[in-house]
Amino acid sequence: MALAPRRLAATLNVLRIINLRAIRRHTLRALLAALSLGGGVAVAVAVMIETTSVRTAIDDVGYRIAGPAPLRIVGAATRGGIEPAVINTASRVPGVSATVPVIRAVTLVRNRDHETFVLALGIDCSAQWIIDPEVCQPGQREPPTLATSTTLGRSLIPSATLATDVGQLSMPTIQQVPQLDTVNNGRVVLLPLSTAKAQFARSDRVDILYVKVADNSSASAVRARLIDALGPGFSVLTRQDPARGFDVNTVLLPLLGIFALVAVGVGVILIAQITRLSVEERRREIAVAAALGASPLSTISGFLAEAALLGAAGSVIGILIGIVIARPVVASASELTELFVGVNVPVVVEPSVVAVGLGTGVLLAVLAAIGPSLSASKTAIAAELSGRAAHEYNRSRSVWPKAVAMLAIGFVAVLYARMATTAGGLEPWQAAVTNGAVVVAVIGLLWAAAYLSVWAITSIRSRPDRAHSATLTVALSGLRANGSRTSAIAGAVAVPVATAILLSGFLAAINRGVGDVAQAQANGRLVLTTTRFTDFGSMDAKFSPDTVAKLASLPGVGTLERMAEIETTLANGSLAFVRAEDRPTFPFPVLAGQAPQVSIDADRLVIGGILARENGLRVGDTLLLGSGLKARKMTIGTILATPEVGGRRIQMPYRLAEQLFGPQPAGLVFLKPKAGFSPERISAEIGSSHFNQPVKVVDPAGYRTAVASGEVRFLKPLNTLKYGLLAIAFVSVSSTLVLVGIRRRREIALIQALGATRSKVFAITTLEAIVASATGALFSAALSIAIIEAVRRAAIVDVGAVTPFIFPLSEAIRYAALATMAAILAAVIPAWRSTQAAPSTALREE
User: Fold this and answer.
1) What does the DSSP assignment read for 379-399?
2) How many angstroms separate the CA atoms of 833 and 738, rounded?
3) What is the spatial distance between Cα 414 and Cα 419, in angstroms, rounded to a whole number?
4) Which H/E stretch holds residue 469?
5) How does DSSP assign 235-258, residue by residue?
6) Which of 773, 763, 734 is closest to 831 using CA atoms?
């Protein structure tokens, strides 16, 4: 029993002497190590902040609209899914004290030359918690006029208009209500319910029915009665259930997750490199401690504890950097959330995000330090104490087996990712395997790039008989003599180069895919919209019947084809997004089933791969769509690899969508000219015609350009993270190489003591940095091909897309040059500092 306290005391002594003392003596080194790990934590924290900010903003608006109502009813279609019969049925259910119908629309306020996304709410006087009770006088069923917040109302001029599905609603007089200032940051407009029904093409339907429960009734009991009374297709939700509607995170989170996976892999590599450098530097101290009785377990525990401490410090740094990165990411996400659900998103940093970020950093640091810590426990005591260790260690050590092992691990991971997604990744386990394989592939192949760089440099033999190559000879000898240092330099440079190639290629593939989709949809037609060409599905400002009729009657129009987006709730409560088209197009690969057009002709569904996987759907299964008497079980005919709305797509003919969900206003209109009429002539006719709403028209090339530019908003968060991740990677390059330079003070002093001038030291240091970093960049660029393939496979299960393989050569060259310059600067700075001290001083201090 007495042994345990003694062992603990011994371990603590080793930790204090070898690890904690080193941290105190070399605070800069510890800070650099923490900073390298903090980069990976920062990206992960930024992703978590974006996710929680969006969720919190949407939930907050939902709670404010719900008020005291504990229950709400939604139909199969999130817009116009509640018919009058449903309201009557719900009102008669025992325990229901009141039903409050609400229309929730996303639209624009056009004020001068500025457009502001707003949440438009259609209500009657029963929603007294939303509108000031004084607005509704006794006996009034609806508010008499439009209302908005004071913050928005003060900015409006008399000619401001509200975009709707039937045109432009003028707002010469609009009441300003202070209590609306806290709803959606004041970006809200209230309309009388009857006005909202007419303006937003709801006919006699509403979007949401809030239910107030009698005082003597239980909300859970009333909910059960409502479910029985309403029948299929309707959902009765509680306040704790998230708000229904498009969640931008369904699209962004998988993409952001891929970036976070890369960041995690990068963080593990960097902290492992730095831990290995620390172990190599302290081998003599480890040998002394072992000779005095310290056990291998004490040595391992000491380095793991040091890694945990540095991980905690790095996590704090990463959390702070992540909060900074998260601000532009959340701002970009807010643009998309305003577009789809009308909700403005402020930055929200929850305590749980800080806790998870801290835990992630510590865990990554400990995991990354396990390998180097085990090598520390195997230090040759006699050889180290006798001074033979450096020669014997470097002579016997070969990086080729490690390079082969890392290559094998990386390529096997890529193979696993490919095999798991060959059939579309429709099984849940395939998604997990693929994402895990991506992390392993990134870590394995980047480590392989570092080890291959050491092997390649070791293979170089210079001509010693040439005087002018003496500097190069000394530089190469230094790189060959210390493989650990060389791999650290090459690995540090490999990280930003691979990151730049991967992210640039991935974003370029997304842009190309967007253009291909737009080209397939236009196909020799003019394309028209009343908003922006990427906003037609989410905005409640679609084509009015009058506009469609006028367009169809133009002399040169041969056919008019409509496209609409419908959000629908499935039986299990998840959301799907129906695309209704008069002429369905299918620019995506088939994962399972028959040709898409064959399914459409047979009134079978064409669905996305992620929708199929998340709901366990396969070809031949049925899916209940619609609600009430219109509800029908539809058979699935085809599963596509579509990235649209996060892969949760359902495609069907326009006529079938209207049978299931009622009349739907078109968001896009395609016009095919008659024979003998040019597109330019029809465009001119449209421009000279008068419509009750703005109509934009472009040819196929213009549509492709408009869609590509509109999709930039979706890619803003990714581009923000891309540059954030690259900046962190370059900082890690500098910190790693500064740490290497600090370790080399004794070596530089020895070179000076042997007669090398300061300029010669600079030349040797610079050449070492150039050779090691250029070699690392070269191998990193080559192995990035396999990393890109792994990420492409992850895109199938994360975003539902089969992206084209793109290797951005120009980006590879650009970032390789930048990384090499960063390495040179990082290596020269500590060398310059070392040359300022006398060699004897540097040797004595080390």
Assistant:
1) --HHHHHHT-HHHHHHHH--S
2) 11
3) 9
4) none
5) EEEETTSPPPS--THHHHHHHHHH
6) 763
**Cα separation of 729 and 736, whole Å?**
10
The runs of H, that is alpha helices, within 464-593 are 470-481, 483-522, 545-552
Q: What is the pTM of this model?
A: 0.73
| CB-CB neighbours of 579 under 10 Å | 22
Chain length of the chain: 846
Residue 316: Cβ-neighbour burial (10 angstroms; 0-12, 13-18, 19+) = middle
Spatial neighbors of 723 by CB under 8 A, at least 6 apart, are: none
Nearest in space to 277 (alpha carbons), one of 371, 360, 363, 362: 371
Tens of pLDDT, residues 204-244: 899 999 999 998 889 999 999 999 998 888 889 888 876 65
The helix-helix angle for 809-835 and 745-753 (nearest 10°) equals 60
CB 140 within 8 A of CB 123: no
Question: Largest Cα–Cα distance of the chain, in whole Å?
Answer: 106
Please give the DSSP secondary-structure letter assigned to residue 846.
-
The three-state DSSP-derived secondary structure of 644-669 is HHHHCEEEEEHHHHHHHHCCCCCCEE
DSSP classification of residue 111: E
Which helix (H) or strand (E) segment holds residue 325: the answer is: helix 296-341
Q: What is the crossing angle of helices 428-459 and 400-421, to 10°?
A: 150
Torsional class of 641: left (φ above 0), alpha (ψ -120 to 50), beta (otherwise): beta
Q: Where are the beta strands (DSSP E) in 654-805?
A: 668-673, 696-698
Higher-pLDDT residue of 170 and 257 is: 170
For residue 630, what is the enclosing H or E element? none
Percent of all residues in the chain with a pLDDT value above 90, rounded to a whole number: 22
Contact indicator for 845, 839 with CB cutoff of 8 Å = no
| Helix (H/G/I), strand (E/B), else coil: 202 | coil
Half-sphere exposure of residue 761: CA atoms within 13 angstroms, side-chain side:
27
Nearest to 260 by CA among 439, 442, 43, 494: 43
pLDDT band at 527 (very low <50, low <70, confident <90, very high): very high
Query: Residue 131: which of 120, 139, 123 has the closest Cα?
Result: 123
Tell me the pLDDT tens digit for each residue of 671-723. 999 988 888 899 999 988 888 888 999 999 899 888 877 776 666 666 666 66
Q: Provide the 10 A C-beta neighbour count for residue 624.
A: 15
CA R_g for the chain:
32
Range name among 28-32, 558-562, 623-627, 743-747 with the lowest pLDDT average: 743-747
Q: Among residues 711, 685, 682, which one has the least CA distance to residue 524?
A: 682
Give the CA angle between residues 46, 186, 713 to the nearest 5°: 40
Residues 6+ apart with CB under 8 A from 287: 379, 380, 381, 384, 385, 389
Task: Return the closest-CA partner of residue 775 out of 439, 473, 479.
Answer: 479
Amino acid identity, residue 803?
A: T
Other CB atoms within 10 A of residue 674 CB = 12
Helix (H, G, I), strand (E, B) or coil at 558: strand
Structure tokens at 717: 């968060």
Alpha-carbon gap, residue 667 to 636, rounded angstroms: 25
Determine the distance from the C-alpha atom of residue 722 to the mean position of all C-alpha atoms in its chain, rounded to a whole number.
10
Alpha-carbon torsion angle 99, 100, 105, 110, nearest 10: 170
